Amino acid sequence: MKKISIILIILLVVSAGAWFTLRFLIGGEGPVVCTQDVKLCPNGSYVGRIGPDCEFAECPLDNNELSSNFNNDYVGKAIIDYLLTQKRFSWKRRDESHNFCAVENLNPENELFPLYVWAYCGEYIIQDGKLKTLSGSSGPAKINYPNELSFYDLGRFSYEAPGDGSHYAKDIKKIFPEDVQQRISDFKVEDIIKRIESVAFANISSWELIKRAIDSCEVKSVWQAHNRTVSAELKNGEELAAVEPELDDIIDLAIAAEEKCGEILMGTE
Predict the structure, then answer these.
(1) Rounded to whole angstroms, how far apart are CA atoms 108 and 80?
(2) Which helix (DSSP H) or strand (DSSP E) does residue 132 occupy?
(3) For residue range 236-264, what is the model confidence (pLDDT) as tens digits?
(4) Is residue 141 left, alpha or beta, with left meaning phi > 0 and alpha meaning psi from -120 to 50?
């Protein structure tokens, strides 16, 4: 009996040691490996699980969620696309980072250009399962565009924005009407930051899921829009959607994977 008891004790110790070793490897002390199941989002796309707790990523939101107080959603979306091309508002410190902008119309009663907006743009990555802001800009801007019936050509936009330091107050009075000046003074930036961070986290998480799907040969076709919105149709019929860091990133990934995975159908807008 003593011999049997000793053997049982040894087995328990070995089992416990193995359990704690496994917990160390997959827990907070080592890389987190999440299961590959996905969740269906309201827009028909899917998101996967991300670390550190392997919870489902938030569903990606359309760029229209980043603009508010516009009578025409296309106007706000076009202004965002324009600001993302301007170094004053949007820039990169890392090649793998993602840029997003959000705007709020400071004078929604006016439907004609120039429009006066508060613009918040940020550069983001996900690090250790959390969103990290690398750089960004925030402030009011006057957006100019010819008032004519046409699609929005980003090359025809222009802007005026106040300078920094001692120039700020003087430029505010010079660029903006009196009623807009008061709204600038009263503007609460917290809400616009919360919106842009939600969109950034969801889209970066979904982009990483698309990259993994392409690398593991699960993707049948990819689609890219001019505003960096992309989607990937999986071979099982599911679809992933996100915003790519730079235009053509998803095309480059699909081309690079063809030698290993075979032809991936590609389409662009």
Answers:
(1) 16
(2) strand 130-144
(3) 999 999 999 999 999 999 999 999 999 99
(4) beta
pLDDT recorded at residue 71: 87
CB-facing half-sphere around the CA of 227: CA atoms within 13 A: 18
Q: Do 111 and 165 have their domain in common?
A: yes
Which of 71, 83, 74 minimizes the C-alpha distance to 121? 83
pTM (2 d.p.): 0.77
Would you say how long the chain is, in residues? Answer: 269
Whether residue 244 sits in one domain with residue 224 = yes
Reduced to 3 states (helix: H, G, I; strand: E, B; else coil), residue 50 is strand
pLDDT at 16 over 90: no
Verify that 65 and 182 share a domain, yes or no: yes
Cβ count near 239 (within 10 Å)? 17
Q: How many CA atoms lie within 13 A of 100 on its CB side?
A: 33
Give the chain's domain count.
2
Distance CA 17, CA 203 (A): 40
